Prior knowledge:
- By secondary structure, the chain is mainly alpha-helical.
- The protein folds into 2 domains: 1-158, Cyclin A, domain 1 (Orthogonal Bundle); 159-250, Collagenase (Catalytic Domain), CATH 3.40.390.
- It contains 13 helices and 3 strands.
- The chain has helices at 4-14, 20-29, 32-35, 38-54, 67-81, 109-119, 126-134, 142-153, 170-186, 201-214, 216-222, 224-234, 238-245, and strands at 56-59, 94-98, 121-125.
- It has a 3-stranded parallel sheet.
- The longest helix has 17 residues, at 38-54.
- 36% of the residues are buried.
- Zinc ion binds at residues 145, 149, 203, 206.
- Residues 145, 149, 203, 206 line the site of zinc ion.
Amino acid sequence: MLGIIDWFKRRAAADGPFPEEWRLILREHVPFYEGMGDELRERFEEKLKVFARTKEFVGAGGLELDETMKVVISAAAARLVANIPGEHYERLTEIVVYPSHYRHPGDDDKVVFGEAHTFGTVVLSWDAVRAGFSNERDGHNTAMHELAHVLDIEDGRFDGTPELHRFAAYAPWANVMSEAYLGLRAAKRKQVLRSYGATNEAEFFAVATEAFFEKPKQLRTRSPELYALLVEYYMTDPAAELDARHGGAR
Ligand SMILES: [Zn+2]
C-alpha cells in the first residue's frame, strides 16, 4: 500500500514527458529497448520514470553516479514489471552502486540480500550491470536478477514466490516451481537456467527470471510449464515478442 506522501511523490515523478536524453541512453545501452512495440514501450517508460525519480541512487567505492547508470538500472526494474498493473518495489528505497565487484562486511552476496530484505537496499556493481546488458541473450543480467529478488520479498518472504495476482495461482506456482527447481538441482548436463539457480528457491526464481527475459524461446521449448507460469506472473510473453519481431508468430 502506498502512503499518502509516497503517492504524491509517485505522482510528481510520473509528471511530464519522458526525457529525450534518457531515450538516447536507452538506445545506446539497453538493447531490448529498440525492439519494444509502442504500447509496451509506453508502459516501460512510465515505470522507468517513476523508478528513476523515486529511488535514491548512491555511488559507493569511489563511483561517481551518473544519469546513464540511473537510467540503465531503472530499465531493468521497468522491464520486469512493465506489464504488471500497480506499484512495485515499494520497500526498495535505495540502490547502492559500486564501480566493480565489491566486498561487503560479512562476505558474500547473501548479506546483501539480507539487507535488501531489512533495509530496502539493493547493492549492484556497475561493471556487472553493464555486462548484463551488453549480452541480452546469455540468460545473465545482474540488475534484473537483484530486482527479481526485490519482487520476491515484497510479500515479506524471501522464498522464490512473489505476490501472485490471484490466490488460485499459488498452488500451481508451488508445483511447477518446485519441480523445475529440483530438476535443475538434479541436472547433469547444461540447462537453459544458470546452475546458480539450484542454490535455493529464491535464487531459482531470480535465475529463471533472467532466462525468461533473455532466453525466452529456449525456456519455452525446454520448460513450457515454467515458461507459462512466468508469462502469467510477468504478464508478458518475451518469446512471442521475439516471434513477432522476426516475422511470423509460430
Ligand atoms: Zn541472487
